[in-house]
Amino acid sequence: MFVDSEKMDLETVFLDKDNIENIQIDKRTRVLKITQLKPTELFEIKNFKLDSLFPDRKIEAKRKIDLIIIDGIPMTDSLKEKTKIDLNAIESISIVTQEKMNNSTFERRYNGDLLLIMTK
């Protein structure tokens, strides 16, 4: 799989669907080529910081994210290391606080907040 001639694992990359110009599939060689309208920089999930996501809100910089979920897929530590996202692909971001999760009916105790990301 290639995006703008760069080899990528699309299982761990979230692209902006509105930025896709062309998709070519070569069934014989089993190669998928995606061309974007504008090249974009992909943001690494492992580098997410709450204060950069919500610059207009005062969020404690020391808040810890225990779990990131993108489109219903929990990001394990190994997935966080590999996953990249085009920030323009994000439709919504929300935070479920540790206090709210630990006071609800979840079966596990959380040591940080839950970050929910939905893409377009």
Notes on the protein architecture:
The two termini are 21 Å apart. The protein contains three helices and eleven strands. Strands 2-1-5-4 form a four-stranded mixed beta sheet, with no helix packed on it. A four-stranded mixed beta sheet has the order 8-7-11-10. The mean pLDDT is 83. A hairpin with a 2-residue loop joins β7 and β8.
Strand tally is 11
Average pLDDT, rounded to a whole number, is 83
The rounded distance between the terminal residues' Cα atoms is 21 Å
Fraction of helical residues: 10-25%
Oligomer: single chain
Rg (CA only): 17 Å
Topology:
Blueprint: E1 2-3, E2 6-7, E3 13-14, E4 20-26, E5 31-36, E6 43-44, H1 50-53, E7 65-70, E8 73-74, H2 77-82, E9 84-85, E10 90-96, H3 98-102, E11 113-119
Parallel strand pairs: 1-5, 3-9, 7-11
Antiparallel strand pairs: 1-2, 4-5, 6-9, 7-8, 10-11
